[in-house]
Amino acid sequence: MIIETERLVLRPWRDEDLEPFAALCGDPEVMRYFVKPLSIDETQALITRLREKEEADGFCFRPVVRKADGAFIGMAGLSRPQFPAPVPFAPCVEIGWRFVRSAWGRGYASEAAQAWLRFGFETLLLDEIVAFTAELNVPSQKVMQRLGMSHDPADDFDHPSVPEDHRLLRHVLYRLSRENWKAGRAEHVSR
């Protein structure tokens, strides 16, 4: 299955994605809201896990390719996250994204995420999709807000995969129900 938007193609992983994805995951600026940048071996292990998730669930975080030039510019998608310790909102399906710096500020994250929300709510018939990020990651929170997701500070949590003394321990949780997504789409169409 391939998902297309006006400017993007969201497709399955290919072997040739390793090099550009490793450059993305190894960029300290891109990874500033993660515990650390990833090595090429860690990136390869991540791709393997994502492919396994796609096989098991029918979806995962996938490559995002720009239609205009075929460039790999990041990843976006849905995932059933697994945590090393319980979190109050699990089990869940999350939406997420990660893009190369040259793609920032162009609306690609929102465009890809909108396509994945549609897939999640219309094809998978999910009742809710969540997103979470480090409390310090304001740019991703702005994307979540543009998507119509809501935040309740009571849902914020300490991420169990982040060391307790790390500056990124505290995470914010955003939620979007199918009903609110449909209402937001209807409101957008009526404008």
From TrEMBL:
This is GNAT family N-acetyltransferase. Gene3D superfamilies: 3.40.630.30. PROSITE patterns: GNAT. The lineage of its organism: Bacteria, Pseudomonadati, Pseudomonadota, Alphaproteobacteria, Hyphomicrobiales. It comes from the Bacteria. InterPro entries: Acyl_CoA_acyltransferase, GNAT_dom, N-acetyltransferase. PANTHER family: GNAT FAMILY, PUTATIVE (AFU_ORTHOLOGUE AFUA_3G00765)-RELATED-RELATED, N-ACETYLTRANSFERASE DOMAIN-CONTAINING PROTEIN. Residues 8-179 form the N-acetyltransferase domain. Transmembrane segments: none annotated.
